[in-house]
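Fold this complex.
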Amino acid sequence: SAVRCQLCPPQRALQASAALRRVSDEHKKEPAASSSQHQFDSHPTDQQPEQEPQGPRPSYTGQGGQESEDYESEEQLQHRILTAALEFVPEHGWSAEAIAEGAKTLGLSAAAAGMFHNDGSELVLHFVSQCNTELSELLEQEQKLVQLGETEKKTTEQFLRDALEARLRMLIPYIEKWPQAISILLLPHNIPSSLNLLTSMIDDIWHYAGDQSTDLNWYTRRAVLTGIYNTTELVMIQDTSPDFEDTWRFLENRVADAVNMHNTAKQIKSTGEALVQGLMGAAVTVKNLSGLNQRR
Amino acid sequence: GGVSAGATNAALVGRIIRVDHAGEYGANRIYAGQMAVLGRSAVGPLIQQMWNQEKEHLKKFNELMVAYRVRPTVLLPIWNVAGFVLGAGSALLGKKGAMACTVAVEESISNHYNNQIRTLMEEDPEKYRELLQVIKQFRDDELEHHDIGLEHNAESAPAYSVLKTAIQLGCKAAIFLSERI
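Structure:
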């Protein structure tokens, strides 16, 4: 079936898409020199699935068109390539080579890697995003089971530990190359995206843990959990114990520390409040004794 | 998770809930400050009544905040103190001062809610029906407080117009900041 790319900028995507079709085995088409091929109805909604365009069709009306099963947007194609590329990460690292290999398994030309940056950024971000989605689905499932009464509700401590462990375990197949991924995520031009992915993952975990804070606690909890995640991740990439048991023990201790600190803070607060009440009582007593409280 | 957002504009809803939550929180603290000074005076029960309504408002926005998964403004501790100081300070000017503060704040809040209602109506009144209902109800409550303040001689407060302008400027700044941070 035809793989059609809905065109939108950047220019190199146009050329890459054209190159894909040129070299691809499945499609013996004339090379698309430019978009000056005979125009079909330029209305996306009139598009018939059976029509095979001679070249990439520029779309000036945006992505609003209907997508039949044969029709794939560029974004979907990119996702498929990146997903396929993950298989080659252990060998080639997070790089254009892995993307090229992934493209080849889909029957596309290695030149498809030209759609992406050279430094493997999109591959790492795609992977992280995929892991986060998987985690959300996992937590959603678990929540449903608890609501149906089929599983016990976990303590917050246990919940956080399990959620973080589940998320970190997704790194295991790529653990050798994970330090490279971390450094890619820290590149300045990736920081907005990687930060966004990190914060939404942590927010998701707290949401499913049942966090209902509407004050500064909202921030403290997320900051603490982010810290736990990041430090555990660093421990994990250096961990050589069987099935990363050292990492999980580290995680357990960190979460326990955080919960302890929270409980201690609560105790201090209530002790403080009790103390203040005591002092107020003492002050009122003194005022009474000295006659200051009498109305005159 | 959270309330089904469908195609609602999450950023818009987030901003609205964040600033409204901050506003009700601040209003709570203002009345708390007023009560601390005038609690045992003749006007105490009246202020307490208005305060109770604000507590209900805050409770509602706490619920909405969790349901829509909105983050609260980082400035909450500041509104905590500033609100209390404003309430207590205006109450130290006497009952009329407290009423003047109430009039100024409630007028600002009502205008603010009206703006939000307009925005949501322009976006899609059906999609945002629940939120619109809540905001309309609260706007009516705030207008009621405003009128109570006027009935109780707010305008005779010392330096009424100066006080009112200053407070409303502060409210504008608070609203601007809380929407964003």
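Confidence is low (pLDDT under 50) at residues 1-19, 21-55, 58-64 of chain A.
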